[in-house]
Specification:
The complex is a heterodimer of chains A (476) and B (491). Chain A has 476 residues and is α+β, with helices and mostly antiparallel strands. Helices cover 41% and strands 20% of the residues of chain A. Chain A is built from 16 helices and 16 strands. Chain A has three domains: 283 residues, no CATH class; 114 residues, no CATH class; 58 residues, Arc Repressor Mutant, subunit A (Orthogonal Bundle). In chain A, α4 links the parallel β12 and β13. By secondary structure, chain B is α/β, with parallel strands linked by helices. Chain B has one domain: Amidase signature (AS) domain (Amidase signature (AS) enzymes, Alpha-Beta Complex). An eleven-stranded mixed sheet of chain B has the order 1-3-2-4-6-5-10-11-9-7-8, with helices on both faces. Chain B is globular and about 70 Å long. Classes of the chains: A alpha+beta (476), B alpha/beta (491). Chains A and B meet through loops of A and α11 of B.
Chain lengths: 476, 491
């Protein structure tokens, strides 16, 4: 793929844990509030202010760690990461260094029909910094975000392709959303994805110099940014240049990465255990309790869908991408007692409509109950599949049950064989040429007759009966 | 009025309740004392303009027959390290020269809940970094016993205020001896409680794992009273303990010392100790003996490391704790309209370069070095390991004794300017006090005598973790036996 070069990719995902208050104070984490509204002396880094850890953050970190197959440390330590920046109020960030809460995990996903496993080095708790906005010769700082809890999930540097990196990130996001610990919104920054990329000669033992890419706000861009970066690095090295350890930003309009600062010196963060916080110590029973309360995770759910509903793997994976979608499908499948049909309707018709209207499954204009009813109407032959699509279109607009729509619109299927026979006779009588050609061996014309009859019945004639009668009559 | 300023907090409170005098009269008496003497002593950085109003509120409560609290109507001088809502809090630094906190330290809230009234904010070494009060941006405070001498530090203002009858009680903070040493130099009682007894919330941090606030007063009873008010778990400080807070002002009265074992660490008596200090310890020993105490020699083998590891740990933590003073949100900001900042680094360098004094810069530099990669293991990490050994030394020692008796410092107060250019000698002065903080133990300084130059000398008592009851009990019994006349002649 890259000739004799081999990329080495690792991802650092910062997930904002959606607790109501910040990690070390009771300041609100709410987004809507005005600039510097969610700040107490703690968030402001006032003299004498002290951090007190939010238990919910620890709980959600354990929850996530378990879902990422990590080992949970019963004793972890908060450390100070010291550096100066105007939106870092204390002059240090409280993070975890050598004793993070979660370690040695992995996630699995399917890519190109194969199962891929990527290791997770660690996941640690930390506080977010504030936000600076630069305006020419001055800068404004909003500290609402300062102290918002983050879980930094660090992958092993064993991702081999840009596509793999994107899929890994999607999978982590999917798990976070299933756990309901993070909303996974990349645009609002509640999920941030930094990519470490280096290249080395195939089979080399030592990694090349790595570059960190920041500022990527979609998974598609994760792929593009890494793709660009790999080619850039190979080009630089092959033309005799050198890769510098640096932070680069991704410009999605140009599909390029560019250096944020030139050749930065190695940072010395002077990490040391935060003396204001005791080590986080908890009993294994708490971990077990949390483990028991874990929801069904996406891959388990997909496997269950395959076996329980007998749907293809592809369908199962698509339907389990979002928890709400999966549960919508399950409702339709159970109520309609036709999982295959439920899967098709949800994945194809409904999903298309939702995409068009840019709606979330939770905002679906058609309820699972009504969709199930619609499937039931098809299965009991009250309406044909074709009419069902008309009914579905009406369901999107009208707040009515499908059977009411069918009744009101007179869309009930014609199953009266006498009536259908008359329509067949009429069409045959009106198409002598076509009949002659058909009987002369032009089988394809069968569809023409069906179409004519359907037209005559306004689509309401039972297609199976049409087929049967038409075949008999055309034999002559 | 001079009579009121000579009363203890306990007596003032009782006098108010029995309507001998009014809270406003009490406040006025102390304010007058400050008016007459603080021009020379410089124990206060600022005064609470609302103190008289608050005294009036106490009088109104008394008139209605309401409970005024165990410290009701008692003026308290508070070290300028503690945030006081709406009242300037400088930490003795130009950096915070005009800083008015929007919140109060838990200690201040608790004192006010007990009815005490903050009379003013006390002078101190800048960010509590010093042993003489000479590093204060607001000029050094002087020793009320002899104004050519230092009051000690860093809580020099708090000690001088009580000694000079400008407040019956005060609050100091003690990171390596900053309550006990000035208490000894000024002839007052100073108590550093067990680490975790008193909330650090709202107290400007110097070294988080060592800092502990505590009372200074003229009697053990008053300090006990203050401790009852300020000790105890605080949900805003994770390092506070849920250990029970006793009514020490009554429980330490009339404690029998019969059979009590007093430890004398052999390592403490090897350094050159001033003969007057030695005499003070000797006389305390005699008094304790006469009350039935037994003396045992104990060993704290790692004593010789206590000053070096103290200066590594304290400066490491300080280098990080003081990073927040960057001129962005509060504190000193250079005049950038006159000369714009070249870049962000220049912005920081000018704010911090102008805002901090020499000693603070020295300690930030030291701490930055000891935490930096490549040196962390050799310095900070090693110091933490030795700290654990030192703590173990004390745990073993307290298996053999109930309290430890020692000097507070090697000498009585020294002259202003005498040691300021020699930081190492100044640091060595902390030999007997730093171990207490490193081990997290409770300790106190009790004034017992005067030196040949007429300067007060205290002795130090140290107890095991959370053994304040024992510590205060022994000190109170010893206090009764000593004939220390605790009033400087010129105030």
């Amino acid at each position: 793929m890259y000739n004799d070069w081999e990329p080495v990719i690792g991802l650092e995902i910062h997930a904002q844990l959606n607790t109501e208050s910040k990690i070390f104070s009771n300041d609100s984490t709410s987004f809507g509030n005005g600039d510097n509204q969610n700040v107490s002396p703690v968030s402001l880094g006032m003299p004498g202010a002290l951090p007190v850890v939010n238990k919910k953050v620890i709980e959600n970190s354990i929850r996530t760690g378990l879902a990422l197959n990590c080992q949970i440390r019963n004793k972890s330590v908060f450390s100070r990461k010291n550096y100066f920046y105007p939106d870092l109020p204390k002059g240090y960030q409280i993070s975890q260094f050598d004793e993070p809460i979660c370690e040695h995990g992995f996630v699995e996903f399917n890519l190109d029909g194969k199962t891929k496993r990527i290791g997770i080095t660690r996941a640690h708790m930390e506080e977010d910094a504030g936000k600076s906005t630069h305006h020419g010769d001055y800068t404004l700082i909003n500290l609402n975000r300062a102290g918002v809890p983050l879980l930094e999930i660090v992958s092993e540097p064993e991702i081999k392709t840009p596509a793999e990196a994107a899929e890994y990130a999607r999978t982590v996001r999917q798990i976070l959303r299933f756990l309901e610990v993070c909303d996974g919104n990349l645009e609002e920054g509640s999920l941030r994805c930094d990519c470490n990329v280096s290249v080395m000669k195939k089979g080399a033992k030592e990694f090349g110099t790595k570059v960190e890419i920041k500022n990527i706000n979609s998974f598609r861009f994760v792929e593009k940014a890494i793709e660009y970066e790999i080619s850039r690095q190979i080009e630089v090295i092959e033309s005799g240049g050198e890769i510098f350890q640096e932070t680069r930003l991704f410009d999605s309009t140009k599909n390029k990465t560019y250096a944020m600062r030139k050749k930065e010196q190695a940072h010395d963060y002077r990490y040391f255990p935060d003396p204001d916080l005791l080590p986080v110590v908890f009993k294994q029973e708490w971990v077990e309790e949390i483990k028991k309360s874990l929801p069904e995770l996406p891959r388990d759910m997909a496997a269950r869908f395959q076996s329980e509903y007998n749907i293809p793997e592809y369908d199962a994976l698509v339907l389990t991408q979002e928890k709400e979608l999966a549960s919508f499908f399950e409702d339709v499948a159970k109520l309609s007692k036709n999982p295959k049909s439920a899967s098709n309707w949800v994945m194809v018709e409904l999903q298309r409509e939702l995409n068009e209207q840019k709606l979330d499954i939770s905002q679906s204009p058609v309820s699972s109950k009504r969709l199930a009813k619609l499937i039931e109407l098809i299965d009991t032959k009250v309406i044909s599949g074709k009419i069902a699509k008309t009914v579905f279109a009406l369901l999107l607009k009208e707040d009515k049950d499908p059977d009411v729509i069918v009744k009101e619109q007179g869309l009930v299927q014609i199953t009266d064989s006498g009536a259908i026979e008359k329509m067949v006779d009429d069409v045959i009588a009106a198409s002598p040429n076509q009949v002659e050609q058909y009987r002369g061996g032009k089988d394809k014309l069968f569809g023409y007759f069906v179409g004519q009859i359907m037209k005559a019945s306004k689509g309401q004639a039972n297609p199976e009966m049409i087929n049967k009668l038409l075949k008999e009559k055309l034999k002559g | 009025m001079s009579e009121i300023t000579n009363l203890t907090a306990k007596e003032i409170n009782a006098g108010l309740v029995s309507k001998k005098f009014k809270a406003t009269e009490v406040m006025q008496a102390f304010l007058s004392q400050i008016e007459s003497h603080d021009g020379e002593l410089n124990a206060f950085i600022s005064l609470n303009e609302k103190a008289m109003d608050q005294a009036q509120a106490v009088d109104q409560k008394l008139a209605k027959g309401e409970d005024i609290g165990i410290l009701g109507g008692v003026p308290v001088a508070v070290k300028d390290m503690l945030c006081t809502n709406g009242l300037k809090t400088t930490a003795g630094s130009k950096m915070l020269e005009n800083f008015i906190p929007p919140y109060s330290a838990t200690v201040v809230n608790r004192l006010e809940k007990s009815g005490a009234i903050v009379i003013g904010k006390c002078n101190q070494d800048e960010f509590a970094m010093g042993s003489s009060n000479e590093t204060s941006f607001f000029g050094n405070c002087k020793n009320p016993w002899n104004t050519e001498f230092v009051p000690g530090g860093s809580s020099g203002g708090s000690a001088a205020a009580v000694a000079a009858r400008m407040a019956p009680i005060s609050i100091g903070t003690d990171t390596g001896g900053s309550i006990r040493q000035p208490a000894s130099f000024c002839g007052v009682v100073g108590v550093k409680p067990t680490y975790g007894r008193v909330s650090r919330y709202g107290i400007v941090a110097f070294a988080s794992s060592l800092d502990q606030a505590g009372p200074l007063s003229r009697t053990i009873e008053d300090s006990s009273l203050v401790l009852e008010s300020i000790c105890g778990y605080d949900e805003f400080d994770s390092t506070t303990s849920k250990e029970k807070v006793e009514s020490w002002s009554s429980s330490t009265e009339n404690v029998s010392l019969k059979g009590l074992k007093v430890g004398l660490p052999k390592e403490y008596f090897q350094d050159s100790i001033d003969p007057d200090v030695e005499k003070a310890v000797e006389s305390a020993k005699k008094n304790l003996e006469s009350m039935g105490c037994e003396f045992v020699e104990v060993s704290i083998p790692h004593t010789k490391y206590s000053v070096p590891i103290y200066y590594i740990i304290a400066t490491s933590e300080a280098s990080s704790n003081l990073a927040r003073y960057d001129g962005v949100r509060f504190g000193h900001r250079s005049n950038f309209s006159e000369k714009p900042a070249a870049d962000l680094l220049d912005f920081y360098c000018r704010n911090r370069g102008e805002g901090f004094g020499a000693e603070v810069k020295r300690r930030i530099s030291l701490g930055t070095f000891t935490l930096s990669s490549g040196y962390y293991d050799a310095y900070y990490n090693k110091a933490c390991q030795v700290r654990n050994l030192l703590r173990q030394d004390f745990v073993s020692a307290f298996k053999q004794c109930d309290v430890i008796l020692s000097p507070v410092t090697t000498t009585p107060a020294f002259k202003i300017g005498e040691r300021i250019s020699d930081p190492i000698t100044m640091y060595k002065n902390d030999i007997f006090t730093t171990s207490t903080n490193l081990a997290g133990l409770p300790g106190l300084s009790l004034p017992t005598s005067l030196s040949k130059d007429g300067l007060p000398i205290g002795i130090q008592l140290t107890a095991s973790h959370f053994e304040e009851t024992k510590l205060l009990g022994v000190a109170r019994a010893l206090e009764k036996m000593t004939s220390f006349e605790g009033r400087p002649s010129n105030v």
